[in-house]
Amino acid sequence: MMQRSIQLLLGTGIVLLLLTWVHLFVLQPAQGANSSMIFWEFQVPRLLSALLAGAGLSLSGLLMQNLFQNPMAGPYVLGINSGASLFISLLILGAAPSFLNEFSYVSAAMTGAFLAASFMFVVSKRVQNIQSLLVIGLMFASFTGAIESVLQSFAAPEQVKQLFIWNMGSLQQMSAAQAPWLGAIIVFGIVATLFLVKGLNALVLGDAQAFQLGVKVKQLKIVILFVTALLAGSITAYCGPIAFVGLAIPNLSRALLKTQDHFLLILFSVLAGSCFLVAIDVLILLLDPWLSIPVNVLTAVIGAPYVAYLMLRQR
Amino acid sequence: MITIQQAQVGYQTTLIDIAELVLPAGQIYALIGRNGSGKSTLLQTLIGQLPLRAGSMSLGPYALTELQSNAALRARQVSFVASMFTGVEALTLHAYVSLGRVPHLGAFGRLQATDLQFVDKVLQALNLSDLAQKDTRKLSDGERQLASLARAIVQDTPLMVLDEPASFLDYFNRELLLDQLLHWVQQDTARTAVFSSHDIDLCLQIGIPMLVLHQHKLTLLTKPTKQEVMALL
Amino acid sequence: MYNPATFQMFRSLISFFGLVFFFLLLGCTDQKTAAHAKNENLCEHSQYLRIYKYQKGYKVEILDPDQQRKLHVFQIQEPYARIAVLSATHVGMLSALGQQEKICAVSDAKYLLDPRVKRLVQLKRIADLQTELGFSAEKLLQRKAQVVVYSGFGNESQQLKRLPANMLKIANFEWREKTPLARAEWLLLFGALCGQFDEAQQLFEEIEANYIRIQKEVQQNNHSNQLPVLLSGNLYGDQWIAPAGQSFEAHLYKDAGLGYLFSKEEGTGSVFKSLAEILRKGAAVGIWLNPGLPSRKAILKQYPKAQFFPFFKKPIYCYTSNTNKYWEQAAAHPDWLLSDLSRIASGQTKKLHFYALLK
Predict the structure, then answer these.
(1) Predicted local distance difference test score (pLDDT) of residue A101
(2) A49 in contact with C at a CB cutoff of 8 Å?
(3) Exposure of A289 in the CB half-sphere (CA atoms within 13 A)
(4) In C, which residues are within 8 Å of A292 by CB distance?
(5) Which chain B residue is nearest to residue A193, measuring alpha carbons?
(6) Nearest partner of A141 among A90, A77, A234, A68, judged by Cα
(7) Inter-chain contact B92–A258, Cβ cutoff 8 Å?
(8) How close C269 gets to chain A, by Cα (Å)?
């Protein structure tokens, strides 16, 4: 059992290294006078975006599935991105330009994500089944979308364009200067989550049993909400909303590892999430001579059928 | 040993009034009462999920209030088995039982060799070793309930509380479960088990002390007979 | 149908039979075909617009660019006095003809430039329909519009379908044309609608002559084989969107003596390029045109990594110094556009109609 998990972890790690190599050196070989600048300012941040966003999103999905005690939870379907998106819109459209720095972006996205996650969490206590929760998530997303539209009608065309572009989601927007910030946040999120393993494992049995096993359930849930918002919010701030990774990868991890040990699930989800997004980006690079595909289109093409399959299997 | 004094048990209103009650250790107590008499409420109080409305209670050397404020301590003093566990996807029986060790583990939740030995020993004793790698969702009701007992045993607490642990089981599984519980209590004189039940006949047959809930009062019958019990109910 | 060859054959046949049988018939037929002889398509450049002159007025045919069939065929006998125009380009064409008084409704009035139109909107003599795609059919009816001109986006909106059959609905495909002059030729349509066809024709001929003159000057002055290489467009999300090699923009760049980075790309619409390709080819670029933003600062704000584009240090030009002017007047004035671009090609930053060097 343990051996199988270790094999899978090692295997995924090797695939990730291979994909990284293909991404950086095979598909984007150095050429021309500017090759070193292009490498450090464009190729490396793009790869780091895929690595960090993949890891962070699937980890936040894993945390949300644990928190909601529901395998269909995820930052995108439950409107966490929408909360971040709304707050970023408020910032882009509302704030003075001098306020638009790294810190304000990330903190706005995180605040939005945290509020959305908390709202959904409170709501989840009142609905009986997962379908209702997903519908509420959808409603929440369209509600924040509507508010954004209203805000946009007051905004200058350039601001609207900026917001529109950001809302498409992209692995190519983050700059080399921003990468260490996102890296630090994601690494912090992973380490913090590893310290929650015991509680996460117990929470699988439900609040009452977790309580009986000595878990401070309320405190743990607030910490989970906070870490989720930190991860999903910061990634949304830097890369825009990226769909399906957070929902699909933790489910895939559980299915492959056949375990509820969150120590293994965290490590594998992080690796597999990175692998998935880097693979998606490798595919985008491969297809580039013929057609250019936005990252969210490809995650949806692969992720949506898998999620639909999971939904069908739920019944 | 459980000591209760001048206690009022209940959520918004007092359901049970207990003037004074001492339950010596080394015994297994069956909690009997009609539906709605407050069996579950009393059990919730015993496991520290519900504070007393008035009075005091202590489990062994610890006051209930202390256990309520100290989660780690509580988890090493009281274990709990619910009437039903439906299973969790991708959670094997072994992993489920191992979760009983959570109160004894470090931050990362890693099982040490001694923990694993303990889990294996309990699984063997309960005859569950062959099912260890089976998904908890694919077990039978009887197997799952036995696994829940194993999980509580593995938690290694002086007090074990069980809420109608046998109500969904057939006759043979009921007897098996009670046998194992009895066995657990008899292994160590410091151990106490309290379980609620509707199966008066089975309890009488095993010959264990009964706690009868009736008209907001709790009565301990150390050597109950059917007449005594029926008179109280 | 009535090309000169068949006409000749037809006449000789008739003459032959006429000699043998009916003498009268000859004269009759001759008179009729003579009237048709003048009746040829008056649009030389446009692919999607045909206008024929009749004794009583004009016959207009508009072709659907996607299906190569006639979308609208109609006759204009009387000039129209109440025309609704849904795009700024259409407003610009009517303004160029001095026919602002004939406009009864526009969309997005807040972005309009022409002072007379703006004044008429203020006086409520021109209705503001807000957005082009979501305009209200009811408002148009209230204004008693006789004609509505809309941008042909392929499928007609529900609002258009609600308009009564006797209201003339015209899809404008000016933006699909492949050459700048073909775009400007749509002036003739507006001339015909307003009863100002001859004036429109005169204006167009002037524009055409101007355009050709500038084009020739460019050719004469271009002695070197090294044309400045132009990159057009900007990054939208992960994709660089630029005009394709056969678009009117690409045509314009060529006429202005600019080498266009994507001149060999098939198509008349847009091309979508990855950032990697732009970076690869970017070193050759000498001028960046149309980033769609008013300043270098705005470009960096939208995409901070633009500072690393090899062409970010090169001159950047955009029409954004007066965006409204560009959208309203550029289609009707390809000569001005060409003049701007030929100046940009030779590094002159002054006396530009639409463009400005970004700071």
Answers:
(1) 66
(2) no
(3) 3
(4) 238-239, 272-274
(5) B108
(6) A77
(7) yes
(8) 15
> Taking CA atoms, what residue in B is nearest to A265?
B90
Q: Of A201, A212, A254, which is closest to B109 when you measure between CB atoms?
A: A201
- Nearest Cβ partner of C276 from A161, A170, A288? A288
Which tokens hold the place of C75? 């006759």
How is the beta sheet containing B210-214 ordered, strand by strand? B62-63, B54-59, B2-9, B16-23, B217-221, B210-214, B28-33, B192-196, B159-162, B78-81
Architecture of domain C49-205: 3-Layer(aba) Sandwich (3.40)
pLDDT tens-digit map of B23-53: 999 999 999 998 888 999 999 999 999 999 9
Q: Which of residues 171-230 of A touch C (CB under 8 A)?
A: 171-173, 175
The yes-or-no reply on C/B contact (3 CB pairs or more, < 8 Å) is no
Mean pLDDT of chain B: 92
Does a structural domain hold residue A7? no
Judge whether A33 is closer than 8 Å to chain C, CB to CB: yes
Calculate the average pLDDT of chain A: 88
Give the domain CATH number at B61: 3.40.50.300
Q: CB neighbours of A30 closer than 8 A, spacing ≥ 6? A: A36, A38, A39
Q: In which domain, by residue range, is A129 found?
A: 54-314
| pLDDT for position B8 | 93
**Residue A117 above 60 pLDDT?**
yes
Nearest-10 crossing angle of helices C88-96, C187-194: 70
Q: How confident is the model over C213-251, as pLDDT tens digits?
A: 999 998 888 766 677 888 999 988 888 999 999 898 999
The CATH number linked to A90 is: 1.10.3470.10
Cβ contacts of C310 on chain A, cutoff 8 Å = 34
Cα separation, A295 vs A303, whole angstroms: 12
The answer to whether A156 faces chain C, any CB pair under 8 Å, is no
ipTM: 0.91
Residue B114 lies in domain? 2-232
Among candidates C273, C276, C302 on the partner chain, residue whose Cβ is nearest the Cβ of A162? C302
Structural domain total, chain B: 1
The answer to whether B107 contacts A198, with C-beta atoms less than 8 Å apart, is yes
| Per-residue pLDDT reduced to its tens digit, C294-305 | 889 888 888 888
Task: Yes or no: say if B8 and B14 are a contact pair by the CB < 8 Å rule.
Answer: yes
| Domains: count for chain A | 1
Over range C257-280, report the average pLDDT: 88
What average pLDDT does this structure show over C59-76? Answer: 86
Q: Which residue of A has its CA nearest to B81?
A: A209
* A23 domain-assigned: no
Tell me what percent of the residues of chain A surpass a pLDDT of 90. Answer: 46
CB pair distance less than 8 Å for A162 and C280: no
Residue A96 has pLDDT above 60, yes or no: no
Q: What is the pLDDT of residue C14?
A: 43
Please list the residue range(s) of chain C that carry CATH number 3.40.50.1980.
49-205
Would you call A165 and C302 a contact, using CB atoms and an 8 Å cutoff? yes
CATH of C224-357, one of 2.60.40, 3.40.1800, 3.40.50, 3.10.20: 3.40.50
Residues of A in contact with B76 (CB under 8 A): 214
pLDDT score of B73 more than 90: yes
Distance between CA B195 and CA B174 in Å, rounded? 13
Strands C103-106 and C127-128, by their bridges, are parallel
Residues of C in contact with A169 (CB under 8 A): 237
The minimal CB distance from B109 to the residues A198, A205, A209 is found for A198
β-pairing verdict for C168-172 and C58-64: unpaired
Q: State if pTM tops 0.90.
A: no
Residues 6+ apart with CB under 8 A from C59: C51, C52, C53, C73, C74, C75, C76
Confidence at residue B20, expressed as pLDDT on a 0 to 100 scale: 92
> Among A208, A211, A260, whose Cβ lies nearest the Cβ of B91?
A260
Tell me what pLDDT residue C224 has: 67
Say if residue A186's pLDDT is above 90. Answer: yes
Q: List all chains that touch chain A, counting a touch as 3 or more CB pairs closer than 8 Å.
A: B, C
**Whole-number Cα distances in Å, C196 to A198, B171, C8:** 84, 102, 34
